[in-house]
Design brief:
The structure is a single chain. By secondary structure, the chain is of the alpha/beta class. It has helices at 8-22, 35-47, 64-67, 97-108, and strands spanning 27-32, 52-55, 85-93, 114-122, 134-138, 147-151, 157-161. Helix 1 crosses helix 2 (35-47). It is globular, with a radius of gyration of 15 Å.
Length: 162
């Protein structure tokens, strides 16, 4: 098996540039737990954005019956969602099922003016009609492989391929 080498820190810089182009004066960043939340926290700090939050897909997943309450932080949206431009941030987009679950969770909190998605890596393989407004990279992996964002104690990103 050939090893996939991705520079997560370099891709983060590309994601930051892409996110800057998507921002409106009324945009709130919402990171999808866990890798997306890490990215959104860092983006909010680097871009000086006041409104950001974290969203969990756990209660709206279509495999909830099999997974149960997986280890995840709860949704935390410390701003009014109604009428806001929401920019969802995720680390890896694959089937689109997590994004679908997150959209359901988001609309439990209100009705945003718009919702866009920006991802660090799009690995294709969509099962639902969900596409990111921005992706820093597109890669192909076998269906039996997974790509996971890791974060060191000092906040630096890397990838794990399994």
């Amino acid at each position: 098996m050939s090893e996939l080498l991705l520079d997560a820190e370099g891709l983060y810089l590309e994601l930051k540039r892409g996110v800057q182009r998507l921002l409106t004066p009324d945009t709130a960043l919402v990171g999808i737990w866990s890798g997306g939340a890490w990215l959104a926290d860092r983006l909010a700090a680097d871009l000086g954005l006041a409104d950001s939050g974290t969203i969990s897909s756990v209660l709206h997943r279509d495999d909830f019956g099999a997974r149960g309450l997986a280890k995840a932080d709860h949704t935390s949206l410390p701003f009014d969602v109604n009428g806001r431009d929401i920019l969802l941030i995720d680390d890896v987009l694959y089937t689109g099922r997590t994004t679908r679950a997150v959209l359901n969770e988001l609309f439990d909190f209100g009705r945003p003016a718009s919702v866009q998605l920006a991802v660090l890596v799009d690995r294709g393989g969509r099962q639902l009609p969900i596409e990111p407004a921005f992706s820093a990279a597109r890669v192909s992996l076998r269906a039996d492989q997974s790509l996971r964002l890791a974060r060191t104690d000092d906040g630096r990103f890397s990838f794990e391929v399994k």
